[in-house]
Specification:
single chain, alpha/beta, 2 domains, 4-stranded antiparallel beta sheet, globular
Length: 311
């Protein structure tokens, strides 16, 4: 066996529910090999989605570690990390306050100042203080820069690594599609490529991104649906669009959270046929489900019971 692609070691996670603590995960450990198809089964509320989010860097464990290719994905969510997240939210709110003040100052004050200078010469001496206020507004720009630097400091390197993994390395398929209703199939599929491309480079790369999106949609059997909006698709077709969107950046691992949970038997089978085709082509897949007929498609099935994984 080759070195595992993804490793979870002794993962614990607890949620605060009112006055009680709900311990969802109690020492989950898992190794996923390259090209493997792993299914995690469990009852509703057993913590399957929580575990998948931690494996895919969408959430952080309280204790335990997750490794991708031997590199740590995230630190446990310690007290210091929670304080840092709270401080980051405060700084973000201050940033928005500064932005709103600047907009109000210049959208309202600057036109009035110019109009007074041009059309009301007798009151020019009275608008000088207004001009000084407008010039003083430029002093808010260094404040905004300082707040931005503060956020960069509060967001540690581990969080940046999680962001890069979600953007470039991991793909996600959720139970509820999460397609944008105002965009067509092709536009919904190409969104991850837009997110990972700098705005000034998008005009250069957009054609290749659209070509890749068309090829990916052909893989999931939606070549004839490129210009259709989500409201014009069936449930199975929407889920296949979600799969194509997750594959557009060629992820190393595809995570699927109950991908057939909202579908009838026929549509669910078509979605699983797509996943099996991807698996035969070498795609590593981790899926959570409560349906034994879906888990049968996997190479290996694990059961999540009482917060622990069992073969």
């Amino acid at each position: 066996m080759s070195d595992p692609l993804l490793v979870a070691d002794n993962i614990h996670k607890t949620y605060r529910m009112g006055r009680t603590d709900l311990q969802v995960l109690r020492g989950c450990s898992l190794k996923v090999q390259p090209g493997e198809f792993v299914a995690i089964m469990g009852k509703s509320g057993s913590g399957k989605s929580t575990l998948l989010h931690i494996l895919g860097a969408l959430d952080a464990p309280e204790t335990g570690e997750v490794y991708y290719q031997g590199q740590r994905v995230c630190h446990p969510e310690t007290r210091i990390a929670r304080i840092g997240h709270a401080a980051d939210r405060v700084v973000r709110a201050l940033q928005w306050i500064v932005v709103v003040l600047l907009i109000l100052l210049y959208l309202i004050g600057l036109p009035l100042f110019i109009a007074a200078l041009i059309f009301f010469p007798p009151v020019r001496e009275h608008v000088v203080p207004v001009g000084m206020v407008l010039i003083g507004g430029l002093g808010l720009l260094p404040v905004q820069l300082a707040l931005l630097l503060s956020r960069l400091i509060l967001t540690d390197c581990t969080e940046h690594r999680r962001i890069r993994l979600r953007r470039n390395t991991f793909g996600f398929v959720f139970q509820f599609y999460h397609l944008l209703p105002e965009l067509n199939v092709l536009e919904n599929t190409v969104i991850p490529r837009m997110i990972r491309t700098w705005p000034w480079l998008w005009f250069r790369d957009r054609r290749s991104a659209r070509a890749d999106a068309r090829q990916t949609l052909e893989t999931v059997g939606l070549t004839e649906r490129l210009k259709h909006r989500p409201s014009e698709l069936s449930g199975g077709e929407r889920q296949r669009v979600a799969i194509a969107r997750a594959l557009i950046h060629k992820p190393a691992i595809l995570f699927a959270d109950e991908p057939t949970g909202n579908l009838d038997a026929a549509a669910g089978r078509s979605v699983m046929d797509v996943l099996c085709k991807l698996h035969r082509e070498g795609q590593t897949i981790v899926i959570v489900t409560h349906d034994p007929s879906i888990a049968e498609f996997a190479d290996r099935v694990l059961h999540l019971e009482r917060g622990q994984l069992q073969a």
